Amino acid sequence: xxxxxxxxxxxxxxxxxxxxxxxxxxxxxxxxxxxxxxxxxxxxxxxxxxxxxxxxxxxxxxxxxxxxxxxxxxxxxxxxxxxxxxxxxxxxxxxxxxxxxxxxxxxxxxxxxxxxxxxxxxxxxxxxxxxxxxxxxxxxxxxxxxxxxxxxxxxxxxxxxxxxxxxxxxxxxxxxxxxxxxxxxxxxxxxxxxxxxxxxxxxxxxxxxxxxxxxxxxxxxxxxxxxxxxxxxxxxxxxxxxxxxxx
Length: 247
What we know:
alpha+beta, two-stranded antiparallel sheet, disordered N terminus, globular
């Protein structure tokens, strides 16, 4: 069949609307490149930085959870990057409960800190064995540089409600991923009064010789440990004192 100009025009009249509709459908189905990139960025996992504490009894590596406690992690990292923790000590050890440090020098003198930060205890993380939390005073929003490591499950230190400092809990912001054996050694040290404190000071004092960020989560020192809640708590003596900014 020979196509003439007269016969082609009706054919084009029928085909052109279909071609335009197909082009419009294709444009709607394919999202713009910038939208795909934004979507990928929103679903990318948050990096979990790690900090190495070199102590007089061995090294401890802490994985931080900025996705759960962003203000507390940023505060801790600022102290690390400022070299604040270098030369401070673990000044408080309550056996079978916690190990606390991050403020006092070898002479048990407190260092000047940055302003306190808001409490992030209501973040879904529990004070379980090996987790690291921010120490504070009676005011929930009084945490500065001090932190403690839970040597057993301490769920009674978790957020219960915002009625008072007693119910507010202590903000977990990290977990020991290497060197828990070092923490256990510190926990087993004899304690007693020393300097301004009436008790709980380990003998000898355990010095944090240096603290530094050791890389991105893509190259962890140990297998990353995600925070876990809901584990069966270990029993702890009800008489144990709660961690605070003051001894």
